[in-house]
Write a structure and sequence with these properties.
Elements (H helix, E strand, L loop, with lengths): L15 E2 L2 E2 L10 H4 L13 H23 L6 H24 L3
Helix pairs in contact: 2-3
């Protein structure tokens, strides 16, 4: 059975050339942002209060949390100390990093 018999989509690379189909229609209208891209130097990328919050979370995740794990009393439970204590700073660091690096 050939692919034309089943009535499904068959990709034909020769039907496309430089973003346009051979029938003259445009491939998509999503290319507007590539016409005039914003230069990175013109973007607002200063180290402001978001950066300092991220630095604080990094210090918490890499210094405070491991010290808390080391100082956790063994009779309280290692499940909490070895699973939950590292999980909280990791999630906090991930969320803060995404928040600090995205600009409105």
């Amino acid at each position: 059975m050939t692919s034309s018999d089943d009535g499904g989509y068959v990709h034909d690379p020769s039907a496309f050339s430089d973003g346009e189909r051979r029938d003259g229609s445009a491939e998509s209208d999503d290319s507007e942002w590539t016409d005039e891209p914003i230069h990175p130097d013109s973007a607002d990328r200063e180290f402001d209060w978001r950066g300092w919050i991220l630095v604080g979370v990094i210090v918490f995740a890499f210094i405070v949390s491991p010290v808390a794990i080391l100082l956790w009393p063994p009779d309280v439970g290692y499940l909490f100390a070895l699973l939950i204590l590292p999980l909280v700073p990791a999630v906090l660091l991930a969320v803060t990093a995404v928040w600090a690096t995205t600009r409105p």
